[in-house]
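Exam prep: given the inputs below (a chain plus S-adenosylmethionine), describe the expected output before reading on.
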Amino acid sequence: MDQSTDTNAAIWKSEEGAQYWTAKTAEREQKRAAQWQFMGELLPFGEQDAFTFLDLGAGTGAAARGILELYPRSVAILTDFSSQMMGEGERQMQQFAGRFGYVEFDMSTSNWPAAIPATVDAVVTSMCIHHLSDHRKHGLFAEIFERLAPGGWYVNYDPVSSPDRVVEATWERVNDRDDPEAAGKRLHRTPQEQSRHENHVRYVIPLDQQLDYLRSAGFQGVDVYWKHLENVIYGGCRPT
Ligand SMILES: C[S@@+](CC[C@H](N)C(=O)[O-])C[C@H]1O[C@@H](n2cnc3c(N)ncnc32)[C@H](O)[C@@H]1O
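Solution:
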C-alpha cells in the first residue's frame, strides 16, 4: 500500500480523530482496564522496584497508567506521532505528574529520537501495532529488542486477524452478542466511520506471523499470554 492510500496519519493527527477516540475513554477503561493491568503483571518486577518503561503509540496513556498504578516507583516514557493525542494524554495523565513524559516518535520510520534512552527496562504497546505495515511491525520489534536491557520484556495488546473465515465469523458473532447494535452499525457507517474502520483493519494480520517476527528478532519466552476472540496480549523477553 502506498502512503497516499494510508489514511492513518491523517486520522490520528486530526482534532476530529483524537476527539472521537477520547470521547470513549471511560467506556474503554471499563472494558480494557483488566488487560492493561495484566500487561503490568507480565513484567517481572517487584511492586517496589524502580524501573523505566516505554509505552509506544501511547495515545492518551491508558496502558502506561495501568503499569504506573501497579508499580508506584516506575517511570514511563510515552511516545506517539499525534500532537492531538499527546495533548489529551498530558491531561489524562495528571495524577502521575513527575513520573511520565511524552516524546514524539513516528513508528512508521526507524528514526528513534534521542530523547528515548538507549536502554529501557520494559516496552509495552497497546492497540497501535496494527496501524503499522508488516515491514515496520517486523522492524519495530527488532528495534525494541535492541533497546531492552537484558531480561527486559516487550508486551503487546492488539487485535489480530485469522486466515480461517469460520474463525473470523465466530469472533463477529460473539462480539455481536456483546453489543446488539454492532451489526446495524456495520451496515450503516457514515463516511467518517467507514474511513476509521478501514484504518483500523488495514494492517491487522494473523497472530502467528507476529509471533514469528518476535522470535526472529531474538525474543525468548514468546507466548500469547491472554486472548479473547480477536484481541491478544503477547510478548517475550530479551535473553539475560
Ligand atoms: C487506537 S489508539 C491506542 C492508544 C493507546 N495505546 C491505547 O491503548 O489507548 C492508536 C494510537 O497509535 C498512534 N499511532 C498510530 N500510528 C502511529 C505511528 N506511525 N507512530 C506513532 N504513533 C502512532 C495514534 O496516534 C494513537 O494514539
